[in-house]
Design a protein that fits this description.
Largest sheet of chain B: 5 strands, parallel
Largest interface: A-B, 30 and 34 residues
Distance between the termini of chain B: 8 Å
Structural class of chain B: alpha/beta
Number of strands of chain B: 5
Helix content of chain A: 25-40%
Helix content of chain B: 40-55%
Oligomer: heterodimer
């Protein structure tokens, strides 16, 4: 990642008019969006599995008839109600021609000649929270460094951070740890696949043990990685003597295992990082998603970086004798 | 032989640190939190060095050190904190309780082995 930790968000583009793709792509490029396309047959499968979407851009003539497009929108809204759907109108603008029930499926409309409403939607629904560059860059650095240290024989890659609106959990195992300071209050969440870690470890090499890795090994490793990142986050971003949050308010976190769905009680978009850890010898890969959910307080204007990553790296692991 | 007590709620850390020290000829006892650490220390006078995490369930590491000094009356066992915490006020609290040293994780065994050997002798 470069010095500018520019955030992006993935949007699902359901549009069949290829002559407009360049225009839509140009808009996406200019506004920090990554457009994803799919075959009609795969739409629901992708929506059921993709965890890092920000919005859906749907053309009203995407299906054979407007009614069928409305039916598709209804299906999307049913399985992913957290994702805003923006309707591209082809013959008229607005939603006035649609019945109330259908109008509720969309957060806005746009036309290919006037994409300004789409820009408004992006600002309102996706990039509505400001995340300081130093924070985004710092998180990526400390997490990559922690992962590289914990999985010494794997190559760590950090992808461009995302803003996501969806709430689908990746993999089978995740950790949650509270983050609290005067400028933030919420959680960090790490998500991964159990089998991927077991496959890569083979044996519990982190422990130097000869016994095969099990789900408990995965739990322990994810727990320790979470702890290390949490500590590094506090050392870098929370000043000594930070008064913390004055609020004691809490909201329930709801997890639906069947649907792999988690709600933190807030509809705010979330800051998401994706890391891949590759064993270059055999091609085994671990994917880790990291979410930051500042659902209880977010005051980026008070954010301040405490120390540089260089000092952090020099200090870590060394014994300071008193 | 002098023993080292490793106190950490993470089995990954207990295995990693314990495995390294054993490979280097040191005898190791482990505990899963401050309460367990206090009990293990009470039961085994052969423990000369405690290497402890700070953030643990049931009893945190610094409270454990304070209890070692005040409740057990053990002023001689050496204590080193091995933790993700790096904030000065926490270190001051450790110093006041008689902590000998502070390591910010991750654990780099080679750089501390000689000191651990001396403190556990």
């Amino acid at each position: 990642m470069g010095n500018e930790a520019q955030l992006v968000s993935k949007v699902f583009v359901l549009d069949k008019f290829y002559e407009y793709f360049d225009q839509i792509k140009q808009f996406c490029d200019q506004n920090g969006l990554v457009g994803l396309k799919a075959n009609f047959a795969n739409i629901m499968t992708i929506l059921s599995s993709n965890i890092d979407l920000g919005a859906i851009l749907l053309a009203d003539n995407y299906c054979q008839s407007l009614d069928e497009t409305m039916d598709l929108a209804r299906q999307i809204h049913t399985i992913r109600p957290e994702l805003p759907i923006v309707l591209r109108r082809t013959s008229i603008s607005g939603l006035d021609d649609l019945p109330e029930k259908q109008r509720k499926l969309f957060c806005a409309t746009y036309t290919i000649d006037d994409m300004s409403p789409l820009r408004k939607v992006i600002d309102e629904y996706i990039f509505s929270l400001y995340y300081p560059n130093a924070l985004v860059r710092g998180i990526s650095e400390i997490t990559s460094s922690t992962l590289a240290n914990q999985f010494k024989h794997l190559k760590v890659n950090a992808e461009t951070p995302y803003i996501v609106r969806d709430r689908i959990i990746f993999g089978e195992v995740f950790s949650l740890i509270p983050l609290e300071s005067s400028w933030c209050r919420g959680y960090m969440m790490l998500q991964t696949e159990e089998d991927a870690i077991i496959d890569v470890l083979g044996f519990d090499e982190l422990a130097g043990d000869e016994s095969p890795a099990t789900f408990r090994t995965v739990n322990n490793i994810l727990g320790e990685v979470t702890n290390l990142i949490w500590g590094a986050f506090k050392n870098r971003f929370v000043a000594d003597g930070d008064p913390g949050s004055r609020s004691t308010a809490q909201v329930p976190i709801v997890i639906n295992h069947q649907h792999k769905y988690i709600s933190f009680g807030s509809g705010n978009p979330q800051l998401c990082f994706k890391y891949t850890l590759l064993n270059e010898e055999d091609g085994h890969l671990i994917t880790i998603y990291q979410w930051f959910v500042f659902n209880l307080n977010w005051s980026p204007e008070d954010f301040q970086e405490v120390q540089t990553s260089v000092n952090d790296l020099i200090d870590s692991g060394e014994l300071e004798l008193f | 032989m002098a023993k080292i007590l490793i106190v950490d709620d993470s089995s990954t850390v207990r295995d990693e640190v314990g495995g390294f020290l054993k490979k280097n000829g040191l005898e190791v006892v482990t505990a899963v939190d401050g309460t367990d650490g206090l009990n293990k220390l009470k039961a085994d006078p052969g423990i000369k060095l405690v290497v402890s995490d700070v953030n643990m369930p049931n009893m945190d590491g610094l409270t454990m050190v304070e209890k070692i000094r005040n409740e057990l009356g053990n002023g001689t066992v050496n204590v080193i904190m091995l933790t993700t915490e790096n904030n000065p006020s926490m270190k001051e609290r450790g110093k006041a309780a008689g902590v000998k040293g502070w390591i910010v994780k991750p654990f780099k065994g080679e750089s501390v082995l000689e000191t651990f050997k001396k403190l556990s002798a």
